[in-house]
Every structure is written in structure tokens, then in C-alpha cells.
UniProtKB/TrEMBL annotation, chain A:
Family matches, as Pfam families: DUF6895
Domain of life: Bacteria
Alphabetized InterPro entries for the sequence: DUF6895
Domain DUF6895 as annotated: residue spans: 13-290
Protein's name in the database: DUF6895 domain-containing protein
UniProtKB/TrEMBL annotation, chain B:
Biased composition (Low complexity): 123-137
Name by which UniProt lists this protein: Uncharacterized protein
Native organism: Actinacidiphila acidipaludis
Domain of life: Bacteria
Region listing for Disordered, in residue ranges: 112-142
């Protein structure tokens, strides 16, 4: 059995690192057009989403809740300049959904930007919005995102989900690093980032219940911490999470003393901002996996369904 | 150097014998496979050792067909059984494979083959009886495959015992495999991901006998894939062919 203390500790440490390195969540206003201004928006959106999950699950200690609140304030006030950078991002690339996706978790936490709401109303009505060429899991993400914004998802979420790799429940031994990320994100979109585990279709839940243990074992062995962390999040979204003890022990052991979680194998060295870019995601994932698994673990202790 | 040379000759002999068994499985011509390996002019000791390595699979076509074996083949097989008895400290895997050979020899030596795994009247036989067939001897220690074993270790061990995975086997490993189908299926996924084709093929042998393999595993396609990726090793080919025969019901 996995210790709740161990699982919780991973998240608490990760949050310490994220707060200590909050300056890494930065936009590049003068980004090379070839790279694009929106390139650095994704980390900010992911940070906001993880903080939102942390508030939602309510299992963080007061220290973690306080750090999460301060991180969110930093991202909103400093990085996004109170939302003005979202508008700027949207005006730079009006066809991109990214500024809206980054905006969504902030909006759900009560930080709205009327101009972004108006812009979305304009853009989402365009045929080009649905015509965007994307992979099936991205299409599902856009449908789920539209639903959360209160827009009619096109295609409907269930239809989009059926087209994903996971939705087609392929031979589990064909999974690879890329498809595994598609799997994790399909689960995140379908469950609202772990908020509604019951929204996972029964066949998909049964498929993951059968094969996730083999995948956890595999990526633990390969020391792919970022992917392992996402798969641990998926485990916590299942009707009966395993809270796989070996995977959690390995994941916790990979975490650095300062809370950073290497993405793959060992911690990289070099310029701090480069190191941040490599490990911020795996550290966010560590916080995410921890809060979901802690919540499920406590629910289990209380004998209640998640 | 001599050791390396012997080891290399044994590897070659095992590959060659497995290829011969595969040919026999595919052609239905079951006579003389072992004689060709260990007959006059052959490298006798190495050939017998190769038979010991393949264990009961050296006579797999006869076992699956529940048909009579060529007496000369049986004689060679019997020599391999006697030449390599388990030592007091032999591994459980070695004890089990030797036990399987003893049972195969006893069963194929009988005129009407009543005790052959897969033979008439053995389907669904209570497993407890299997170890007490005349000539089969007492089963080795089944604790080697105890209930609390991880699915990873279970798969590793059962894959090594794949020659015991034949219809109606009824022995302790067969009972364990039947009770832990999902764990074995996870082990198959793991082995394929790790490109351990021999382990994957060995696990697939057991899965081919299980009635409750999850459809999402895609076992039939998995057999083709493992054969395509790992079939240069004729032992892999032997297992995938055997599994396919059992899966399609072509084996009795």
C-alpha cells in the first residue's frame, strides 16, 4: 500500500520548487516570429490549471494552499499582466485557441477579462475554428474546452473522444511515448482534469484498469518521470485507483531535495532558465499527481467514493 | 575458450532443432526430427543437450497432435531425459522442464496415449491427478509460482516453462496461469514493450490456452507481431506457431 504521506510529500515539495522558481513562468514579448509569442503561454496555463485542481480537491495543507494562491497571483499579475497579455496573445495569433485555453482556468477561478470573452464569441463562431487541422486528442481537448466555456462543443466530446487512440482501445502493447501522452490527455479532458472520474466511459476505464499497471511498470523502469507522473494522474482518475506502490516509490525517489522532478532520468545541469524549461512540466505533473492521489487515498480512508 | 565454443555450438543446435520442430509443426511430418538431430554423425552430446533445452517442445508436434511418436525419436528423447537429470540444487525451472519431459516420454510411450496432455480423455481432468500419472513422477515444488508473486515475476517464470503450456496440461504452472490470466497478459504487454520476444512468445503460449484473455489485448495480432519482430530466433517461432495452433483449436 502506498503511504499517503509519501504521495502528499511529493506534491508539497514540488510546490515549494515551483514557487521558488516562479520567475521561470515568463512570456517572451519579443519572441522570434518563427517561435511565436504564444510559445511560452502553455506553462502558465498548466500552472493555473494545477493550482485550480489543488484548490478544488482541498487536500493541500495550509502551506501548500498559500503557495498555490501566491503562484496564481504571480502568474496572473506578473506574467499575464492582469490578463492584458492574454489579449495581446490573442491579437498576435487570432486563429490560435491557446490564449483562450490559458485564460480558462483563471476565468473559472473568477479572474475574467471581458475582451477575451468577447473575442472568443467572435472567433468560435468562425468555420475556421472547427476546421482547424489537429490530432484527435487535441480535437477532444478543444471540444472539452468549449464545453467548459459554455460553448456548444463541435464535435461533441464523446464523439471526439471516440476518435482518439485511447477511445479506440488499441492493442496495449503498441503504446509508445507519444501515444502514452495522448492517452493521459484524453483522460484529463474526459474527466475535467480528475474532477469527474465517473465521466470516463466504462470501456475506457476497464481498458485502463487492465493495462495501466503494465505501462506504469514500463515507464518507471525507463525512468521517464514526466510521463510516469502523468500516468499516475490517470491512475487516480480510475474508478479503483491502484496508487501503484512501486511507481509512487520510484517517482518520489526521483524527486530532488528542492522539490524539482527531473523529466527523464537525472536532473539536468546548466543555465537555470534552461533547467526550468526542462523540468517545470514534470514538477507541475508531480504536484498534479500528488493532489489527485492524495485526494483518492483520503477518500479511500474515509470509505467514500471519490 | 572451450566453454564458449561448446556454448556457441549448443546455441546453434537449439536453434536448429527448434527450426526442425517448427517445420514438423507446419508440415505435419512428425517422424525423425530428433533422429536427424542426434542420430549417427551428429554431435551427440550437444544434440542431447539441445533436446534438453527445448524440453518437451522437442516432441511438440506429437504432443499437440496427440499422435504416436517415432520410436527412434522417443529413444533419443529418452536419452536426453536420462542424460540431464535435475541436480539436487537445480533451479525450479529446470526441475519443472525435466518433469515435463518425463511426463511426455511416459505418455508418448504408451500405445493408446491415454495420459498425453491434450490426448483423449484428459481435457478438464482434475489437475491434482496430473502429477500422479504413472511414469510422470511427483510434480516439482509449485511454491515457485506462489499466489503472491508479482505479475512481472509470474510472467518471467511461466514464460520459461512454456513447453508445459499445452492443452490439458493440468500441472501446477498451468493452474497458476489459468488463475492469473490478466497478470500474464500484462506480462505479455511488458515483454513486447521491452522487445523480449522470447518471453512474450512464452507468455503467449499460456495465454493461448486461457479462455478469459481480455479482447483488448489483441492476442492473435500480438502473435503475428512477435513472430514478425522476433522470429529470427527459432525458439520464438516455435512458441508463436504453437500458440497459434492452440488458439485456433488446430491442436487437439
Amino acid at each position: 500500500m502506498t503511504s499517503t504521506r509519501l504521495v502528499h510529500g511529493v506534491g508539497a515539495n514540488a510546490l515549494e520548487w515551483l514557487y521558488a522558481h516562479r520567475e521561470g513562468f515568463r512570456l517572451e514579448v519579443d519572441a522570434d516570429p518563427e517561435v511565436g509569442f504564444l510559445e511560452r503561454f502553455k506553462p502558465v496555463g498548466e500552472l493555473a490549471m494545477i493550482c485550480a485542481v489543488l484548490f478544488r480537491e482541498g487536500v493541500a495543507g495550509s502551506r501548500q494552499a498559500d503557495l498555490a494562491r501566491r503562484l496564481l497571483d504571480h502568474a496572473w499579475l506578473q506574467t499575464l499582466d492582469g490578463g492584458r497579455m492574454l489579449v495581446r496573445g490573442h491579437r498576435t495569433e487570432p486563429a490560435s485557441p491557446i490564449p483562450f485555453e490559458v485564460y480558462l482556468p483563471f476565468r473559472e477561478l473568477g479572474r475574467s477579462v471581458p475582451e477575451m470573452d468577447y473575442a472568443l464569441g467572435v472567433c468560435a463562431r468562425l468555420r475556421a475554428w472547427q476546421a482547424r487541422e489537429v490530432a484527435p486528442v487535441r480535437r477532444l481537448g478543444l471540444s472539452a474546452f468549449a464545453a467548459r466555456f459554455g460553448l456548444p462543443p463541435d464535435p461533441p466530446v464523446a464523439q471526439a473522444a471516440a476518435q482518439t487512440w485511447l477511445g479506440r482501445t488499441p492493442e496495449p502493447w503498441t503504446v509508445d511515448g507519444h501515444t502514452a501522452y495522448d492517452v493521459t490527455h484524453t483522460v484529463f479532458h474526459l474527466t475535467g482534469w480528475g474532477e469527474h472520474p465517473q465521466d470516463l466511459p466504462a470501456d475506457v476505464a476497464a481498458y485502463l484498469t487492465a493495462w495501466l499497471p503494465a505501462w506504469l511498470d514500463d515507464w518507471l523502469d525507463l525512468r521517464r518521470w514526466d510521463l510516469l507522473g502523468e500516468l499516475l494522474c490517470v491512475d487516480a482518475c480510475l474508478p479503483q485507483p491502484t496508487l501503484d506502490p512501486a511507481a509512487w516509490r520510484g517517482f518520489a525517489a526521483a524527486q530532488q531535495d528542492d522539490g524539482a522532478m527531473p523529466a527523464v532520468r537525472e536532473m539536468p545541469h546548466g543555465d537555470p532558465s534552461d533547467v526550468f524549461d526542462v523540468v517545470y512540466h514534470s514538477t507541475l505533473v508531480a504536484a498534479f499527481a500528488s493532489v489527485l492521489a492524495t485526494s483518492r487515498s483520503l477518500s479511500r480512508l474515509a470509505g467514500a467514493a471519490p | 575458450m572451450e566453454q564458449t565454443g561448446t556454448s556457441s555450438r549448443l546455441t546453434e543446435a537449439v536453434q536448429s532443432l527448434a527450426a526442425d520442430v517448427v517445420s514438423a509443426l507446419r508440415s505435419g511430418d512428425r517422424s525423425g526430427v530428433l533422429c536427424a538431430t542426434a542420430g549417427p554423425g551428429a554431435d551427440g552430446d550437444v544434440a542431447l543437450a539441445a533436446i534438453r533445452v527445448l524440453a518437451s517442445d522437442a516432441l511438440l508436434p506429437q504432443v499437440l497432435a496427440a499422435g504416436p511418436a517415432d520410436p527412434a525419436d522417443l529413444d533419443v528423447f529418452g536419452r536426453a531425459v536420462r542424460a540431464f537429470p535435475p541436480a539436487p540444487h537445480s533451479s525450479p525451472a529446470s526441475c519443472w522442464s525435466h518433469w515435463g519431459m518425463t511426463r511426455t516420454l511416459a505418455a508418448l510411450s504408451r500405445p493408446h496415449l491415454p495420459d498425453l496432455p491434450g490426448g483423449p480423455g484428459t481435457a478438464g481432468e482434475p489437475a491434482a491427478r496430473a502429477g500422479h500419472r504413472p511414469g510422470a513422477g511427483t510434480e516439482p515444488d509449485g511454491a515457485w509460482l506462489d499466489d503472491g508473486m508479482s505479475w512481472q515475476d509470474l510472467t518471467r517464470r511461466l514464460a520459461v516453462l512454456a513447453p508445459l503450456a499445452v492443452p490439458g496440461s493440468g500441472c501446477a504452472p498451468a493452474r497458476t496461469a489459468a488463475a492469473r490470466t490478466l497478470d500474464l497478459a500484462r506480462g505479455f504487454v511488458r515483454a513486447v514493450r521491452r522487445r523480449d520476444w522470447l518471453q512474450a512468445a512464452g507468455a503467449a503460449r499460456w495465454l493461448a490456452l486461457a479462455p478469459d484473455v481480455p479482447a483488448s489485448l489483441g492476442l492473435a495480432g500480438g502473435l503475428d507481431f512477435v513472430q514478425y519482430m522476433g522470429g529470427q530466433d527459432t525458439r520464438v517461432l516455435l512458441h508463436t506457431d504453437a500458440a497459434r495452433l492452440m488458439l485456433t483449436g488446430a491442436a487437439v
